[in-house]
Amino acid sequence: MTRHLGTLRQWHWVSSAICLVGLALFAFTGITLNHAAIIPTNPVITELERDVPADILAAIDPVPEGDAPLPDALRDWLSDELSVNVRPGLDGEWGDGELYLSIPRPGGDAWLSLDLEDGFLVYERTDRGWISYLNDLHKGRDTGVAWSWFIDIFAVACFLFSITGLVLLMRDAPTRPATWPSVALGLVIPLLLIILFVH
């Protein structure tokens, strides 16, 4: 029994260590999301205009129709010239001699428009600040596959932390009378708030 308890405690403290920074981040952004309407934001808009070289335009052959990814030559040029990284799998809207690409990202957004005849490109980026960036991380908004996996793994670690904590509470409950009333409060308070005030 003692050996199993030691293993349980080890799982509990390891999961708590893994969750520590993530829980602090998600708790902080829970507050900022809850009060988003009163937190001032000052979006910074950056607009760039460029002429895409003729050889890059020539590489767009044939010109796609509808939703389709950007050719590698254009993606590489955007990265080198404007430091715009268009992730693979992000489709542009092709039609009427124009390419339009929406580039969503945490904490802001961006878009570009390219005239396929004369090669004139307009790029606009909006940055809403680090609070918005952290809020979007919390929601997993436009964060990509790696962050999505992190959120899932983090959620599993939090669940493990909670379950091992519950088992440890069960073990210590006989000597700590306030254990189950405290656990019950953690259930009853949000339940009452939902029933009485959330409509």
UniProtKB/TrEMBL annotation:
UniProt keywords, alphabetically: Membrane, Transmembrane, Transmembrane helix
Membrane-spanning ranges: 146-168, 180-198
Protein name: Peptidase
Matches recorded under Pfam families: PepSY_TM_like_2
Entries under InterPro entries matching the protein: PepSY_TM-like_2
Organism (species): Marinihelvus fidelis
Chloroplast in keyword set: no
